[in-house]
Write a structure and sequence with these properties.
The chain has 12 helices and 15 strands. It is α/β, with parallel strands linked by helices. Helix 10 crosses helix 12.
């Protein structure tokens, strides 16, 4: 029997992973305790997606388990043991605003939870492929230490070296990471080290804005999804600083899972990859609003606040050429406008 274990299985990337890999695995084990509801409130709950997966994915089994619960995690991993061929770890506390309010819980979920899963994998399924969804916040505000030019709707980087985006050589030192960035960076390094030190197939995927119609967007996390929600419900959206001209690249969750599959089929030890929409799929908040308005014909209500979030990026675009060089057959299928149209059509309000 071939088993995949997916944490954060009711979230955006987790649920997409469940559906994708359920076609090629005998059993999919989902681990998700709906901590997102605790972090961001009732409207951010992923319980609706759990029901959807249980009703529509025949080989899916769900566990309402905290990834920090050592005994429960060991029980799950020991049950499937060497049958487990793939672990996709997407469970996290994902907001750097929320992390500052409760640094200890943020650390427990993001760092200790990851370490707990790595140890369970090493003990019971050492030959499995372990994929970790990290974040570009591991680079802290280092991307802000370059020069930018301001246009009518966005900022653009000036340095020629980074016109195609930031690659994996960008320094993680001498920058302000946010508390969230610290906990994710710590987990990121643990995943790398288990690959290099214990000779395990571990891959780190440092995401930009990961998005798609299955996102339970909230103000503190889920940029495009929450932006669409505010537009459709005619609620005011708060933009935190930078005149709304801060730039993000956006990758559809389906395209990200495709990256996972390429890595699963040809893994390496403790590898890191930047993953995001890249030069093909990026926008400022103002530009995203313009695209959404053009699709829905609903005028966006928004307010631009003076202060930006601490450590927030002015401009972040992913250079994913390292992944593309290793897996040349991979490419993105979704454009930014197609992604937004799909979110608008299918969003859970």
């Amino acid at each position: 029997m071939k088993v995949a274990i997916i944490t954060g299985s009711n979230g955006l990337v987790g649920s997409e992973s469940v559906k994708y890999f359920s076609k090629s695995f005998d059993k999919i084990i989902g681990i998700d305790n709906d901590y997102r509801k605790f972090f961001f409130g009732k409207t951010a709950s992923t319980n609706w997606l759990k029901k959807h997966l249980l009703n529509n994915v025949a080989n899916y089994e769900h566990f309402d388990v905290d990834i920090c619960d050592k005994k429960s995690i060991k029980r799950i991993f020991s049950k499937y043991n060497k049958d487990t061929k793939l672990i996709i770890h997407t469970a996290a506390q994902p907001s750097h605003d929320w992390a500052a309010k409760n640094p200890i819980l943020d650390f427990e979920v993001n760092t200790y939870g990851t370490l707990n899963l790595l140890e369970a994998t090493r003990e019971y399924s050492k030959n499995a492929v372990f994929i970790f969804t990290s974040t570009n916040k591991v680079y802290g505000d280092r991307p802000n230490q370059f020069n930018f030019k301001e246009t009518k709707t966005r900022y653009d980087i000036v340095e020629k070296k980074y016109l195609s985006g930031f690659d994996e050589e960008l320094s993680i030192d001498n920058s302000k990471h946010s508390v969230f960035g610290c906990s994710k960076l710590s987990a990121d390094i643990y995943v790398q080290e288990y690959g290099k030190y214990f000779n395990m197939n571990t891959g780190v995927f440092r995401g930009g804005c990961l998005t798609g119609p299955m996102h339970s967007g909230a103000e503190l996390h889920g940029f495009l999804s929450y932006l669409v929600k505010c537009n459709l419900q005619k609620e005011k959206y708060k933009i935190f600083g930078y005149k709304g001209k801060q730039v993000r690249d956006n990758i559809h969750s389906s395209d990200l899972i495709s990256m996972f599959n390429f890595y699963y089929k040809n893994p390496s030890k403790g590898e890191i990859f930047n993953c995001g929409g890249g030069i093909k799929n990026n926008c400022s908040i103002i530009e995203a609003i313009n695209i959404i308005e053009s699709i829905t014909n609903i005028k966006m209500k928004y307010k631009i606040l003076k202060n930006n979030r601490i450590g927030d990026h002015i401009w972040y675009i992913t250079d994913y050429s390292k992944f593309k060089k290793k897996y040349p057959s991979w490419d993105q299928k979704y454009t930014l406008k197609e992604t937004l149209a799909e979110i608008i059509e299918n969003i859970h309000l």
